[in-house]
User: Which sequence fits this backbone?
């Protein structure tokens, strides 16, 4: 007897769903505006979360580029100083009898993982 009643209830729910009366039958018509508001808030929250994630990804990419640019700037600064003072430094080193000479290539950067 109980199984028959459950079957009738489920059939009634399916019929109401297809007729568009399900919200009225379960009494949610009083809270329909609240339900729509909740879904809009959830959608807004998902949109904001997506935009924050995109902004953080962009910040991380810019941080990598900035690090590379700092290294490039340091190389160019040292190259500029070297071009301005190479002859003086080389003359002083030769006068002191040193085998040290100007670097032929820039320093190697070790990347941390």
Assistant:
């Amino acid at each position: 007897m109980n199984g028959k009643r459950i079957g009738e209830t489920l059939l009634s729910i399916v019929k109401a769903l297809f007729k568009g009366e399900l919200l009225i039958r379960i009494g949610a018509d009083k809270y329909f505006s609240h339900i729509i508001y909740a879904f809009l808030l959830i959608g807004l929250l998902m949109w904001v979360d997506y935009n924050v994630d995109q902004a953080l990804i962009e910040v991380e990419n810019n941080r990598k580029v900035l690090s590379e640019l700092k290294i490039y700037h340091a190389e160019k600064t040292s190259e500029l100083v070297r071009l301005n003072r190479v002859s003086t430094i080389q003359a002083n080193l030769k006068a002191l009898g040193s085998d040290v000479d100007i670097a032929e290539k820039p320093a190697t950067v070790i990347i941390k993982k």
About this structure: The CA atoms of residues 15 and 110 lie 68 Å apart. The mean pLDDT is 85. The radius of gyration is 36 Å.
